[in-house]
Amino acid sequence: MIVVRGLTKRYGRGAGIENLDLEVRPGEVVALVGPNGAGKSTALRAVAGQVLPDAGEVLIAGVDLSRDPLAAKARLGYLPQEPVLYPYLTGEEFLRFIARVRGVADIEEALALCDLGPAARRITREYSFGMQKRLALAGALLGAPSVVLLDEVFAGLDPLVAVRVAERIHAEAGRGAAVLLSGHELTVVAEVADRVAVLAQARLRRVLCSAELRTLQGESGALERAFREIVAPSSTGASP
Fold first, then answer.
1. How deeply is 81 buried, as exposed, middle or buried, from its count of CB atoms within 10 A (0-12, 13-18, 19+)?
2. In what order do the strands lie in the sheet containing 76-79?
3. 111-157 pLDDT, tens per residue?
4. Is residue 116 classed as helix, strand or coil in its secondary structure?
5. 89-105 pLDDT, tens per residue?
6. Spatial separation of the C-alpha atoms in residues 102 and 149, rounded to whole Å
7. Which is it for strands 195-200 and 203-208: parallel, antiparallel or unpaired?
8. Could you tell me the pLDDT band of residue 233, with boundaries at 50, 70 and 90?
9. Is residue 32 scored above 90 in pLDDT?
10. Cβ atoms 77, 147 nearer than 8 A
11. Judging by beta carbons within 10 Å of its beta carbon (0-12, 13-18, 19+), is residue 141 exposed, middle or buried?
12. Which residue ranges form the domains of the chain, and what is each CATH number?
């Protein structure tokens, strides 16, 4: 489970994320969506322990991230917006390294997930962005973490791979993981999410529940119109 209370991270005069309250239950997929600069990546990086918040509390599977960061991070898998790999390791060597850190004996499932074929024996600096993304995702899911954080998980993936990734996200939730992901394409993330949290100007504006998402998806263009209506007041300076 992920519990976020009052999470705030500021950069100079601007706010990366301001006073975010959010919970993701085991077996649930929640998506953060919003325009550029809305705070999606900042929120995920703070939940992953990659940046120190200025205020607020984050609990990862019941562990306070600020009090015991190592124990909290041991319970999560994190895919950043830009994949972070070791450029002179092969894809297979990268997965074996992550597996050893996490105490996992077998990487065959991870190799199948990233679907690199013979390229798994090439160094990762030779990979395309999509290949790097698939490898990083496979590494993030090694060891069946209790919490899965995926920043812009569908960016750079071809449609067929995106379908497989969506299936894997459902599988992770199906085994009981709490999944928090972000994306720009509302229609794409709404297909995999149980709830969608809409951010604008560093603040949470609204959370769309499963029933609302299904209703909006049933009418052509309704989901996009709802998204614009939620974020438009913040862009005009009016109160949401």
1. middle
2. 76-79, 147-150, 178-183, 29-33, 195-200, 203-208
3. 988 889 899 999 999 999 989 999 999 999 999 999 999 999 998 88
4. coil
5. 999 999 999 999 999 98
6. 17
7. antiparallel
8. low
9. yes
10. yes
11. buried
12. 2-236 (3.40.50.300)
Burial grade of 123 (CB within 10 A; 0-12, 13-18, 19 or more): middle
Q: In degrees rounded to 5, what are phi and psi of residue 73?
A: -70, -25
Extract the tokens encoding 170. Answer: 């459902």
Q: What amino acid is encoded at 235 in this protein?
A: S
Confidence (pTM): 0.91
The two structure tokens encoding residue 165: 């990734």
- Alpha-carbon distance of 134 to 157, in angstroms, equals 8
DSSP string, 45-89: HHHTTSS--SEEEEEETTEETTT-HHHHHTTEEEE-SS----TTS
Under 8 Å CB-to-CB from 25, ≥6 apart: which residues? Answer: 1, 178
